[in-house]
Amino acid sequence: MDYSKICFVIMPFGKKAVGDRTVNFDKLYDDIFMPAISVVSLPEGGKLEPRRTDKDFFTGDIKLEMFQYLEYSRFALADISGLNFNVAYELGTRHRARESGTAIFRQTQFSPPFDISSVKAFPYEYEPADKATEARTLVTRVLTESLVHNKLDSPVRLALGAQLASGQIDELLAQAENEVRKPNWPGAMEVYRRAIAMDPNNPLPRMKLGILCRDRGIWDEALEQFTRATAVSPGFGEAWREQGIVENKIAQNAKQVMDTDPAPGESPLRRAVQLNDKDFDAFASLGGVLKRAKRFPQALAAYEQSQKISGGHPYPLLNALKLRVQVNGRLALSGPEKVALARAERFREGQSQQKPPFDSPWCFFDLAEIKLYRGDPKGFLDIATNGLGQTDADWQGKTFVEGLRLLLPASAELPGLKEGLGELEQMVQ
Fold first, then answer.
1. 77-121: per-residue pLDDT in tens?
2. How many Å apart are CA 94 and CA 10, to the nearest integer?
3. CB 305: neighbour CB atoms within 10 A?
4. Residues 205, 149: one domain?
5. What is the pLDDT of residues 334-379, one digit of tens each?
6. Within 13 A of 14's CA, how many CA atoms are on the CB side?
7. What CATH number does the domain containing 273 carry?
8. Residue 159 covered by a domain
9. Residue pLDDT, tens place only, 390-424
10. For residue 52, which of 23, 94, 10, 5 has the smallest C-alpha distance?
11. What is the domain range of residue 327?
12. Is 128 left (phi over 0), alpha (psi -120 to 50) or beta?
């Protein structure tokens, strides 16, 4: 078999539960993935050939054939919707085997767990028919571009490569991860500082420490680590993104003037989107910086781009709606936007009901705002109040309330906005 032409599809077989739906994955393979893969042109000529093993190996013998596909296939496509155990096992095997040539897809109503939430997973839908067409187009485009650019996409190989490059800090990084799992945040941060002292030019422990500091409001040290990470690794787009986010936050805390050009944090974020134009979080963060700089049309454009490349993620969608009110003076939801809000409502509702809630308190804040758009003022206030109870820093609730104020020009279209906002403002004072 010529594995250089094979795209191995890692996905569940038969009918499986995904959220509150039952999905026929065999039909998805026949209708979406197989035709989309079959039209992908290889850079050297010829077409990519889809393959899928049609037997659940983990109920019986583990066959050599599956591991050969995972090890040698030119490309692997994984659908993680529902987080099937076999899929997770095979994806992990593939990531360890190959440093590039793997793309992950998920259905929009499925939220990846924390352990893989940092890995890019392209969202898609398969119903109605126009969504199926969009899904096939997305799959073909992602595979075609990936084959041309051959970028590293395995988090396993990227992490191991960064560690092996230093040759000194493997044990410290593992120790720090163990401290994180306990969780012992001060202990983990101290271990990362030791790793940085041993290998100052390795950006990985700097990023890890920077994120821990950012999440605990230790802004100065977070900025120091992200800035040093971009200095030692100028192509590290995620480090530029985090540097821009923290620069802007420090300026907010210091009550600096935010409407400068460039605004605080704007330059690193523009560098981040230049390095990776598929980083929806970087575009959304840039939108936030421009919003605070009162450059609302530019902020709206950034959020709309983030929404587009994220496949309808609630965060950029909701921010784009608020900024449209500021730019146009009204909300005027379209039919497609109402459908997108309904999808976002299911998405955030599912996350808020997890134990513990996923992405708290923002899942509650987004869900509350969606209830407002969908004409449920009581649900808006109840869920928003619940979200405020989930915060672990004052700025989170204040940021939520500040964003809601942008909707005031469209209060006639949003029953319950003024009254609910008044109550929330008293809670965050």
1. 999 988 888 898 999 999 988 888 999 999 987 766 655 655 788
2. 10
3. 19
4. no
5. 998 899 899 999 989 999 998 889 889 999 999 999 999 999 999 9
6. 4
7. 1.25.40.10
8. no
9. 998 888 999 999 999 999 999 999 999 999 999 99
10. 10
11. 312-429
12. beta
